[in-house]
């Protein structure tokens, strides 16, 4: 018996480089069946009126630590992961890289075990931001927990990992060839960040297999006229994709405009969002619209990815379709996934519907309506 088809009608469908009007998005089971003219739909599909709202692929966040009052590093449990996943799905983020900041190796391994037990359906894996960072650009990361990379540290860190760590932020200037190779052999996407790299060191890191960069402008060497540093290397290597936090706090909106002109489709959105926490290493204090450590150090955003899209459109002047791609197609391409981040036939039926005020109206996850 054929699985029933559901058609989302009367909406503006954003798929890749195309905006479809007077078309319907058809889902069958947990997959996208296709995009068809509304007049061509058969009678036996369930039609759902989108009331002129925007329809796009579910959003993808490659760096998020927590939501609301949940911070994974402070509560390394299956229950915490479940709450974060539920919250993100309600925000229209249907794929995410749960992130752990610099900590002891034992805490990292505890987090890996919890994640492996939870097996969250919406999570793409773990992103470890640290511990192989440059203390000079540590930001909110505790200096005493930052490690120089060695093979022994890598073997210890991954001694219980069955492949759940998918991404790591590292400082390229402290990574030798052996350590880079060991991480790449595990299939981990390496991203340059929390780095004081010179232009040359940045380019060397990219040539050795680092393929991305973490939160452009934040916690990295400056773009100086005598040495353009890591930002200069990012601009120069056209194979490198780079994330950015568009909340107007981590990066000024004028800098986002400049970055977008320079990087084009290589720039993608993350939230770098954390949860409120008053215990442990990372005590995040909510301050109006972002989080700081008790000493005032900027420690994370309070963004949702849909808010990052809204800011990109209303504050930066990026067209809506391009802002959507920055939170769907481009991050999917960074991690090499062809089944998410778009609404083409046979893609996973992860769908976000939001109105002109950037409010979530409906979310489908693997074909099931969750909002």
From TrEMBL:
<feature type="binding site">
    <location>
        <begin position="218"/>
        <end position="219"/>
    </location>
    <ligand>
        <name>substrate</name>
    </ligand>
</feature>
<dbReference type="Pfam" id="PF01979">
    <property type="entry name" value="Amidohydro_1"/>
</dbReference>
<dbReference type="InterPro" id="IPR011059">
    <property type="entry name" value="Metal-dep_hydrolase_composite"/>
</dbReference>
<feature type="binding site">
    <location>
        <position position="129"/>
    </location>
    <ligand>
        <name>Zn(2+)</name>
    </ligand>
</feature>
<feature type="binding site">
    <location>
        <position position="226"/>
    </location>
    <ligand>
        <name>substrate</name>
    </ligand>
</feature>
<dbReference type="InterPro" id="IPR032466">
    <property type="entry name" value="Metal_Hydrolase"/>
</dbReference>
<feature type="domain" description="Amidohydrolase-related">
    <location>
        <begin position="55"/>
        <end position="370"/>
    </location>
</feature>
<keyword id="KW-0119">Carbohydrate metabolism</keyword>
<keyword id="KW-0479">Metal-binding</keyword>
<feature type="binding site">
    <location>
        <position position="250"/>
    </location>
    <ligand>
        <name>substrate</name>
    </ligand>
</feature>
<feature type="active site" description="Proton donor/acceptor">
    <location>
        <position position="272"/>
    </location>
</feature>
<feature type="binding site">
    <location>
        <position position="215"/>
    </location>
    <ligand>
        <name>Zn(2+)</name>
    </ligand>
</feature>
<dbReference type="GO" id="GO:0046872">
    <property type="term" value="F:metal ion binding"/>
</dbReference>
<feature type="binding site">
    <location>
        <position position="140"/>
    </location>
    <ligand>
        <name>substrate</name>
    </ligand>
</feature>
<feature type="binding site">
    <location>
        <begin position="298"/>
        <end position="300"/>
    </location>
    <ligand>
        <name>substrate</name>
    </ligand>
</feature>
<dbReference type="GO" id="GO:0006046">
    <property type="term" value="P:N-acetylglucosamine catabolic process"/>
</dbReference>
<dbReference type="GO" id="GO:0008448">
    <property type="term" value="F:N-acetylglucosamine-6-phosphate deacetylase activity"/>
</dbReference>
<dbReference type="Pfam" id="PF22643">
    <property type="entry name" value="NagA_N"/>
</dbReference>
<dbReference type="InterPro" id="IPR006680">
    <property type="entry name" value="Amidohydro-rel"/>
</dbReference>
<comment type="similarity">
    <text>Belongs to the metallo-dependent hydrolases superfamily. NagA family.</text>
</comment>
<feature type="binding site">
    <location>
        <position position="194"/>
    </location>
    <ligand>
        <name>Zn(2+)</name>
    </ligand>
</feature>
<dbReference type="InterPro" id="IPR003764">
    <property type="entry name" value="GlcNAc_6-P_deAcase"/>
</dbReference>
<protein>
    <submittedName>
        <fullName>N-acetylglucosamine 6-phosphate deacetylase</fullName>
    </submittedName>
</protein>
<keyword id="KW-0378">Hydrolase</keyword>
């Amino acid at each position: 018996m054929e699985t029933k088809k559901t058609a989302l009608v009367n909406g503006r469908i954003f798929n890749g480089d195309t905006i479809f009007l007077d078309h319907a998005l058809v889902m069958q089971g947990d997959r996208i069946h296709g995009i068809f003219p509304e007049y061509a739909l058969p009678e036996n599909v369930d039609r759902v009126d989108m009331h002129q709202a925007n329809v796009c692929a579910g959003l993808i966040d490659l760096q998020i630590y927590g939501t609301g009052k949940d911070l994974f590093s402070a509560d390394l449990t299956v229950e915490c992961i479940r709450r974060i996943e539920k919250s993100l799905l309600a925000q229209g983020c249907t794929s995410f890289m749960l992130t752990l900041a610099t900590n002891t190796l034992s805490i990292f391994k505890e987090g890996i075990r919890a994640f492996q037990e939870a097996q969250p359906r919406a999570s793409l894996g773990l992103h470890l931001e640290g511990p192989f960072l440059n203390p000079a650009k540590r930001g909110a990361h505790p200096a005493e927990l930052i490690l120089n990379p060695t093979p022994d540290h890598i073997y210890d860190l991954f001694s219980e990992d069955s492949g759940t760590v998918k991404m790591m932020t590292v400082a390229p200037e402290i990574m030798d060839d052996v350590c880079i190779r060991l991480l790449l052999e595990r299939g981990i996407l390496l991203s340059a960040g929390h780095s004081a790299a010179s232009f040359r060191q940045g380019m060397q890191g990219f040539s050795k297999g680092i393929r991305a960069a973490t939160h452009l402008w934040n916690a990295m060497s400056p773009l100086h006229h005598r040495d353009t540093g890591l930002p200069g290397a990012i601009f120069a290597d056209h194979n490198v994709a780079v994330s950015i936090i568009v909340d107007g706090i981590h990066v000024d909106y004028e800098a986002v405009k400049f970055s977008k002109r320079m990087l084009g489709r290589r720039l993608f959105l993350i939230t770098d969002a954390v949860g409120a926490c008053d215990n442990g290493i990372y005590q995040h204090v909510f301050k109006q619209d972002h989080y700081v450590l008790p000493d005032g150090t900027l420690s994370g955003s309070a963004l949702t990815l849909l808010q990052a899209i809204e800011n990109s459109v209303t504050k930066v002047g990026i067209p809506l379709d391009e802002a959507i791609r920055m939170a769907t197609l481009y991050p999917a391409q960074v991690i090499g996934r062809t089944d998410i981040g778009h609404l083409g036939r046979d893609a996973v039926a992860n769908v976000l519907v939001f109105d002109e005020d950037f409010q979530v109206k409906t979310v489908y996850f693997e074909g099931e309506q969750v909002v």
